[in-house]
Structures are given as structure tokens and as C-alpha cells.
């Protein structure tokens, strides 16, 4: 989770909400790198023996960063409070008459020395305290969405933590409507499609989660699903079995953080008790061969966050990250930024730094980008359109 900032040109914009898109319950399972009939796309420059994944197999190493930065991609694991940059924290604190326990932006940045998930969460929640008004939530989301467009993110499914705010007396309406208004504005102004996923804080009780769900239901048309985040160790997914069952009855999409610091058993529970459709993080799954087989067989997406894993000491070095191992085992892994303001990088930084450290190739880039679209909660037609756009990029990249 974490923050981000920037001057906001279109603060306060209000657009009429568009028709709600109906999400498909199926993940497109067409195999990565499937050969395409050239007649399907007259402008396609692939030869008859090439696939989008192999089109750039001879790409010089010095061109790979440009390909990574320019390819269209979806982000499926972004905590909007984790995009709140120190500059915007100070701007909001001043606007809302709040005093921060840091003398300057630089002092706050120096505090970003995390040793584990909990040490990060302590400062994360402190930073979120500056969010007071609907405009604050709009500005925070808008700043992230501008950054997403710059990184060629064309679709984002954004986590938000209402309990972090309602516990401070901020209303659910203020939180959701501010975020939703920014998502709607981004569609026309930035060309970025964005949806919201409400996350329950797992260090709180299931009863608290139920109360949060009830508070959010009047705004059901403004978020597409629910997730589970915050302190993982000591808070297994089954703690929230009943509230997830209720969310499933309501037709909400289901995701959960599991296997970041917690054991593979937490991933099993998220799948078999909560019945989630995606696993957020999931990097500890490699410790359980049977779980790896299950994830590969059922094409359960993993929303992996490499720079977050490095910052929180899940891996000692980025070169030690197991993203390649996950891909080689046939898992539907994706790359995401998690809490980019705290962890040192948005989407393109996660791609370029991870590829440089691990030796991943252009073929892996295509696979990861395609996985991100297949794992998204958009309908089949939207997935096909995104993948066609990705294929065209790889076919014409020079």
C-alpha cells in the first residue's frame, strides 16, 4: 500500500457516470503466444511463423527498456493510498490544517526505511490521515491515473481501504465518490479505464468487515469487487470466510493478499475457503509444489509486485526474485506496483528494474502484459481488444 503526488490540472471535475460495464465471470484462457491468422489483422507485420511473443525475440538488450515502457498493460495490484506521494501529503495537510510529524518532504522520504510489512503499514496509515475530503480522494486518484497513463497503463483495478478512513470519521460516501469521480474523469480525459476494489483490513475483525460492507452497499455500482489486505501474518484468510461468502452472493469479484509474507497455506485458504479469483502477491507459493500445480492448472492469476517485495525484504536482492520461476512453471503472473510512492517505482520502474536484474526477455514482457489483460475483470470483448492492441504493439515495435 502507499502514496503519490503531482499538481492537478483538472481538480474538481465532475462528469456524469457512464453505463456500468458488466464484468465477465470468465478469464480468457487462450494460450499466451497463440499463433494468429494474418488475415485477421491486415496491418499485422508478423510473418506466418511468428507469434506476438516471438516477434521481438532478437530485440537488442538496449532496446528492451523502451519496449517495456511503451507496451500497453493493465495494473491489477495498486493500493491508491499507497500512491500518495510525500509532496501531495504535505499539500493536503496544509489544505486541511493538519500538522505532520515530519519537518519536510525529505524528512518523510527518509522515514521510508522498511524492514517488513508491518513497519511499512505503520507509516502508510499515518500518511493516509491527511485524506479528509472528497476532493482529497479525487486528487490522490487523479495523480495516480496521470502517472498510469504515462506508463502506458490502459486499464487499472484500484484497491482502496475504507476502514482506514471511516475509523477517522471520514464517511464512506466521501471516500468512494471522490475515487469514483476520478476514475470516470480518467476515461475520457486520459484514455485510462479504471475500476475500484474495496479491501477489508485483515488485522481488524470480520464483524468490522461486515459493517464496512454494509456502509459501502449504497455505492455498489461504483466498485466491482472486494479484497483482503494489511498485516498478513497471524491473520489467515479463513478469518473472513463469512464476509467473503456474503460478497460472493452479492456478485462481487473476489481477490485476496496471500503468500506475500504468509505461508502457502494462506494461498490454499484464499482459494478454497474464500474462493477468490486472483491471488495478490502469492510469491511464497513456490514453496509448495502441489500449490504451484494447482495455480498453473486453474490459471489463477498472481498479481506480483517486485519492487514492493524488495523494499519489504521478501527477497534480499531483486536478482533473487522468483518471477521467472513463476512464469516458467506456467503461472499467470503479472507485474504491478503495489504502493509505488513508498516502494520506489510505478509500473514501468517495476518492469525495467526487474527485467534488468533478472534477465527476463521480450517474450516474458509479452507474456506478463497479456496475463494482465486476461486476469482483469473486464468482459471478453474488452479483453480481446486489449490483447489485439498489445499484439499490434509487438508486431510493429522497431
Quickly describe the structure:
The chain is α/β, with parallel strands linked by helices and 398 residues long.
Descriptive overview:
This protein is an alpha/beta fold. It has one domain (72-396): TIM Barrel (Alpha-Beta Barrel). Helices cover 43% and strands 11% of the residues. The chain contains 17 helices and eight strands. The protein has helices at 64-70, 86-95, 105-110, 117-128, 134-150, 162-166, 172-189, 206-216, 241-249, 264-272, 289-297, 306-311, 323-328, 340-343, 347-358, 362-374, 380-396, and strands spanning 73-79, 153-160, 193-201, 225-229, 253-258, 278-281, 302-304, 333-335. The protein has an eight-stranded parallel sheet with strand order 1-2-3-4-5-6-7-8. Strand 3, helix 8 (206-216) and strand 4 (225-229) form a beta-alpha-beta unit. Helix 5 (134-150) runs parallel beside helix 7 (172-189) and helix 16 packs antiparallel against helix 17. The longest helix has 18 residues, at 172-189. It is globular. The model is unreliable at 1-49 (pLDDT under 50).
Neighbour order of strands in the largest sheet: 1-2-3-4-5-6-7-8
Compressed to H and E, one letter per element, the order equals HEHHHHEHHEHEHEHEHEHHEHHHH
Find the count of extended strands (DSSP E, 2+ residues). 8
Classified by CATH, the class is Alpha Beta
Report the helical percentage: 40-55%
- Total helical segments: 17
CATH-assigned fold name? TIM Barrel
Flag low-confidence runs: 1-49
